[in-house]
Task: structure prediction
Amino acid sequence: MENEKQEILNHSATHIMMQALSRLYGAIPGVGPAIENGFYHDFEAEHQVTEKDLPAIEAEMKKITKENLPIERKMLPIDEAIKLLKKKKYKYTVELAEELKQQGETEVSFYDQGEFSNMCRGPHLASTGELKVFKLMKIAGAYWRGDAKNKMLQRIYGVAFATKEELADHLKMLAEAEKRDHNKLGRELGLFITSELIGQGLPLFTPKGTIIQQTLRRWIEDEEQKRGYQLTMTPFMAKSDLYKVSGHWDHYRDGMFIIDASGEEMALRPMTCPFQFQIYNSQLRSYRDLPIRYNETSTLFRNEESGEMHGLIRIRQFTLSEGHLICRMDQLEKEFEGVLDLINYVMKTLRLEDYTYRFSKWDPANKKGKYIDNAPAWEESQKVLKKILDKNKLVYTEAEGEAAFYGPKLDIQMKNVYGKEDTIITVQIDFALPERFDMTYIDQQGKKVRPIIIHRSSIGCYERTIAMLIERYAGAFPTWLSPVQATIIPVSEKFVDYGNEVLGQLKDAGVRVEIDDSDESLGKRIRNAEKQKTPYILVVGEKEVEAKEVAVRKRGVGDLGSQKIEDFEKTILKEIKERLSE
Amino acid sequence: MENEKQEILNHSATHIMMQALSRLYGAIPGVGPAIENGFYHDFEAEHQVTEKDLPAIEAEMKKITKENLPIERKMLPIDEAIKLLKKKKYKYTVELAEELKQQGETEVSFYDQGEFSNMCRGPHLASTGELKVFKLMKIAGAYWRGDAKNKMLQRIYGVAFATKEELADHLKMLAEAEKRDHNKLGRELGLFITSELIGQGLPLFTPKGTIIQQTLRRWIEDEEQKRGYQLTMTPFMAKSDLYKVSGHWDHYRDGMFIIDASGEEMALRPMTCPFQFQIYNSQLRSYRDLPIRYNETSTLFRNEESGEMHGLIRIRQFTLSEGHLICRMDQLEKEFEGVLDLINYVMKTLRLEDYTYRFSKWDPANKKGKYIDNAPAWEESQKVLKKILDKNKLVYTEAEGEAAFYGPKLDIQMKNVYGKEDTIITVQIDFALPERFDMTYIDQQGKKVRPIIIHRSSIGCYERTIAMLIERYAGAFPTWLSPVQATIIPVSEKFVDYGNEVLGQLKDAGVRVEIDDSDESLGKRIRNAEKQKTPYILVVGEKEVEAKEVAVRKRGVGDLGSQKIEDFEKTILKEIKERLSE
Result:
């Protein structure tokens, strides 16, 4: 109910904003939906709206709410609606109405408020006076229908709330979120950059960002090896033949980068499965060989639309801790539980524990285009997955139509700092691809049997997980993940030699350590290291030189006093080795 | 002189073989050059020659040498030559002659022996009787002019020698080489596979092969970090804009995979340089920041022609230990020497010490197409490189026209098991790209200055280096690189539990260890482990269980007797940690 009320507020706010834009600039509306956390409206106007215009637009909206215009819904026959919209020169809405007509709609609803009227599904408030609290947030450009071939329209985002307190809370949350936003903070901390020359959705990890990825990668590869996984390294491209067998060519081609390799049709891979299956198929396998657990630190490519790319979250190239467990039916449950246990261990170590589960199923009504058309396999795999989830007492939501094209999934969902939910890890049960790739093992009776496959990740895609970590830690990475684990600051030039001695000793011990012997004042250098969120600052002066000590300041704790170098070394190495959090 | 004699032998052998093929099958000749280690001739014939036909062809060749036909050279005006070739229906040779005419040749040489005559540059023997020792080696198919759009011709390879001893030596070398050939042995040891569905030049590393790559990669990344390198992770594709600035678009486009990314022109990267330069350019750099040493375990792509791909050596995707040192002119020499020292350390550790140096320069006559057209930069960088090489007393050959398009190189050359030389590492000095990317640093006077760049590798491309290692070690990798470092073999089923105990203990210590508790006999299991070239075989029976020992067999050494598990553990861990060779 709460959500419904909020949606009505948002809907009405879009119309009131659009009415203000019509009055001020004679704007022609595009689409204007309610979205998570607010609303936006696209429009065409000769006047190019800037941030500076927002107060004036808000003032006009305020005026419209003061006028307290009644909001009235009316139904119009579709042809009459098109005629009316044409008369109003609402050319974008005309296009939408004509599409509705083609889809067989015979009548559509309009909402009127004073001189403003537009086609809309609603629902809306009863009068403009009921909108009390709203704020316009930002402006943007957006191609009509998201297509770069169409005209670029203007867009204004806003929020609407029932009370001033809710607005204040929202703005506070946003301010906090913006400080942590990985796309802002990650750049400020010098973890990644992007380049106009290279293109959108292709971030470059700097040395600092790369150290984080390398540390995570080695940890995950080692942990998986301990759990019986075998690492593979397979190519990032293949002939279209491979994807025709896997089904990617029919169900996923738009998401792939196609390459003409001197006449051969090839594509960059969007998933690793068919590549690891080639390794499985390169030998005869016996029931005794199963389960086989393959993992790969795998680079994948997705042909995202320009408008969709963002930071480290929506990118064209990413690296997934991707694995496939090939097992017998009698091993499936145990293997699945092993996967859940690994994910739980990884998320706990990273302190990303506030995830939720989503059970993503196919949509039988949409099976032709989106899914492999094998209803019995779908029913069977969904039944098996549900049984395992229930047995393990997982609390999950269900999502129809969110399955992979070849099987149902368990999604590990997590919210970013703005409250937007994203999938960060998936686990899938697959009865379909073993069939398509003719994968078999020889059972105890000497017969060929199809194995079952679990597709899974453990830490998800490194880029996305690092984005989550930047936001959760607000950049203050635990020591084992920090690009710089300790910064040595000599009190003055006299102590630089000793500082370098400490540097060498800690470096040799495997600590990522830097020295700041620049000309800045002591206070400034300490503040710089704090701004970089370095876990330890080691100040060295007269007293430390004599005692062979370092004065330790721990991030988030403060001054720990002076310690023998060896003692500090022991402490920090333990923290790194055991992946401790503060 | 020796080489010239050998080449004449090869030349004459091709004609004698072609003469035999004409007599036996009415074959029409294509091209037939002398090559490294022998010769081949392409031809068209209705009869499909198989390996079984080779003795008959050799017999006919023997007959021709017995006939001792005089070999006579004659010069023909080009039009007369074409007329003669047309009359003989040598359609492929007609094509070649017409091309020579277009290039302005007015006369060409023919060699006649008995009824056989063909256009040829020569030189040849004086008579067919002078060819004493020859052997046909293998058959193949080859498109006319190497173009898949043309007709597929037949090809026979052969060798010719002055003495029987030389032939015997050659065959012995070949037999030994074949056993070590990475493309054969690497597959036999289960290190990599290829897949028809994925395509040529795209090997898949199995778990065993991947462990080798992972071990090398971690070693190199750690060693480079110790030497002050900073690891980056940059995307594998970019807009064509980037390559237009770097010059790849003009000088290297044919070698690249081009992608149409929803209307944006992009390409997979053939080199990492322009990507790392974006990171350099993302900040203002001071003379105090230099040298900056970037490295990346970098995946690259080259659009190789189908016919050129081979094993792990010529592939479409490979991973290079690629780095760029960005330095001041006064740092160049020291940095270059640091690079040489690192390469030397890596090659020594891998026991790949029989490399040679090649100084690859540009070809001023070909500067328009192949090279960045900046003669002063070329002269300067070649002068600087030569000075450093001479100062370091390196013995090198010079190769004109083998430079990178942006600068001269020092190539580290190594021969494969067949004696074919390949470049496995390059180091380049580059004055051109800093200009193109407008890279600068601020000098002590506050002025913007261009840095100089050293492009370098340390271990080369992992695939190619692993190929070399397979051949050098004949598959017997030193313990630290072995996919399986020890195999535990229980004498009988009774000792499997104890075997698993040893397995657990060694695994926990970080040793890659397997147990073979299959139903095979003890002898068979030991032979299997030996065939897999496992460095240590640990047999466990009654005596070992009681004494908590393992009976150790060391590869290449033999039985070492029984040892306490702890003692063996200490020995093997030391061997792994110190990367010892036998």
The radius of gyration of chain B is 29 Å.
